[in-house]
Target: Putative ovule protein
Amino acid sequence: MRCLTKESKCVWISTIFLLIEKVELKYDFLVWLVGVALFSCYCVYLLSLVWILNRLRLSTR
Model:
């Protein structure tokens, strides 16, 4: 699958990640997997890493 490297795509994807974070879906990991499968580019891996670290930080509080 080709990497979507356009900045607009990355911004759009990051917006989705932020929306997921706001809604706090019970299936966030599934959504993350789908996101990586659909948009397997560097920015998504970076976003998901930040997102996972953020969730871990919140859960350890």
In short: The CA atoms of residues 8 and 43 lie 11 Å apart. The two ends are 38 Å apart (CA to CA).
